Amino acid sequence: MVALFDLLSRGYFPKELPPCFSTTGFAAIAASGSLPPAGSWKAKLARHSLARTGRIRRELGVPNPANYLGLSCEIAANWSRLTAYYARSPMSRSVPTVGGPDDLRSVVPSLGTSSIAEQRVIERTSAAYVLKADIAGYYGSIYTHSIPWALEGKAIAKANHSDTLLGNRLDRYARNAQDQQTLGLPIGPDASYILAELIGTALDLALIQRLGRTPAGFRFYDDFEISCSSSHDAERVRDALQETLRDYELQPNANKTRIEVMPGRLELAWVGRIRRFAFSQPATRSELLAFFDLAFALAHENPEQLVVPYAMRRLHSVHVPPVDHEVLLRLLVQAVLADASSIMDFLRAVTALAEETGWVIDRDLIAEAINLVIERSGNRGHGNEVAWALWGALAFEIDVLAPACRVLQSLDDPFVALLALDARRQKRLVALDVSRWKTRLVAGELFGEHWPLVYESLCHGFLRPTGGGDPVASDPFFLALRASGVRFYEPVQPATEVPEDYEDLTPDTVSR
User: Fold this and answer.
1) For site-directed labelling of 314, which of 123, 177, 343, 429 has its Cα 20 to 30 A away?
2) What's the pLDDT at 3?
3) Stretch 251-264: mean pLDDT, rounded?
């Protein structure tokens, strides 16, 4: 059984946020059942922009805690029924499974991401062709009313719209968390993964029924890989899959749906070249230069892939002697400025270098990189890169200069705003106009897109409403949270350790 505490502590905020954002305190209070109802039963999602494969940004959505608590309670109370439904699919390799004590999330897929290549070997043994397909904008395209269609059956769900059906209750919570919109699920929370897998299971079962057989192959999240004996068979499966998706108001991704002749690659060529790069222990300077030269060349050849972040993670287990630390730092700076989506991995690598040298490191070079990432990424509205850069500025006690501050104050991302306000309090900002963010400090925004900014600004005293008053006191739910000492943001302390990898960054996982 998945525990409510785990859904709220490890399954709420997106894993891609800096570690200063946490829901552990909220989980402890909420799981005790002592919180009063919120003053609103619907709310908007807090938004946060994230890099992804294909270079099309992915917008993460963070539900209001009042809504997410209700949805999580429903999931935890009915976990046995949900898992029984998942078990009906012989095709899924992404069945939500309760995370263990070493897992960073409350639920994890039944097949580890590192095992996808091995699964392909098994499924393709006698295949002449493989149909590859995924769903266009999966989470954003899910029709929430299709949740009861999947779990209860379409006929039953259409005839009964009451809360006696679990599917209807899950649908209602999902809609209320995004201002009653019926299109899409928020990307980031584990609850969305749990609900999306209900749809995935229904697609598997409907495809099997339409084909009259269980096809060889598997589904991993929204990616289908079906082994076929002939091109005609592959075309028939493709057509059947498209019809099945249409029944649930979904569409295949035209750019990623194709039939491949076997044998085919088990992984992308660039991934293998980086993964198999041979380092000595300790690594030599010539190896470092050759590795980054390879990574930069592959990044140019594969501009839509997250090559640089993957390459940086390859360095985690590589020991570099002190004599080459400066060279490595300069290569890391060059890499993060070439691809700011690698900022978290840059900070992890820099932290490891600093710890090894007793924090004797070229802070000016790091400061230049962090300021440029804030300025360049902020101008493009890339919130996640800016958030991590601000976290790095606080952790390394680096000043954010005027050009970067001017960009910061124009951003409307609540997570970026909180980090910037923390940096302002710690006197790490040269100057910051906070008038834009102060306009958000009204009672209605507790259930709007800026709820983290409103609640945390008032709890920490980062900002005060222009006209006075206390928006948090206007709602019993948020007032009880504050009285219990619940914080979703904790000020960043200098020399903070970057968290462990939130997942194995491979082409099979970066777009989840």
Assistant:
1) 123
2) 95
3) 94
- Look at residue 511 in the predicted model and tell me its pLDDT: 32
Closest CA to 28 of 16, 12, 46: 12
Cα-Cα-Cα-Cα dihedral of 392, 414, 190, 165, to 10°?
170
Place of tokens 């700011």: 340
Structure tokens at 285: 């300077």
Please enumerate in sequence order all residues whose Cβ is within 8 A of that of 145, keeping only pairs 6 or more positions apart, or say none.
157, 171, 182
Residue 193 confidence (pLDDT) above 80: yes
Q: What is the pLDDT of residues 480-500, one digit of tens each?
A: 999 999 999 999 998 766 665
Indicate if the alpha-carbon torsion angle 19, 23, 28, 29 is positive or negative. positive
DSSP class per residue in 204-227: HHHHHHHHTS--EEEEETTEEEEE
Which DSSP category does 305 fall into?
A: S
Q: Please, where are the H alpha helices in 94-189?
A: 116-123, 138-141, 146-152, 154-159, 166-176
Calpha distance 197→219 (Å, rounded):
10
Nearest to 446 by CA among 67, 173, 192: 67
Cα–Cα distance measured from residue 26 to residue 485, given in angstroms and rounded to the nearest whole number: 9
* Residue range 394-441, pLDDT digits in tens: 999 999 999 999 999 999 999 999 999 999 999 999 889 999 999 999
Over 60: is that where the pLDDT of 95 sits? yes
CA 87, 88, 93: angle at the middle one, nearest 5? Answer: 60
Longest dimension (CA), the chain: 72
Output Rg (C-alpha) for the chain, integer angstroms. 24
Q: Side chain identity at 368, as an amino acid letter?
A: E
The number of residues making up the chain comes to 512
Q: Say how far apart CA 178 and CA 317 lie, in whole Å.
A: 41
- Closest by CA position to 346, among listed 366, 322, 317: 366
CA angle at residue 30 from 26 to 31, to 5 degrees?
Answer: 115
Q: How far apart are CA 396 and CA 340, in angstroms?
A: 18
Residue 300, token pair as written in the block: 């140019």
